[in-house]
Amino acid sequence: MEFKLKGKDFIELNKLIKFLGWCESGGEANQLINEGLVLLNGENETRKRCKIRTSDKVSFNGNEVTVIL
Question: What's the sign of the alpha-carbon dihedral 57, 58, 60, 65?
Answer without folding.
Answer: negative
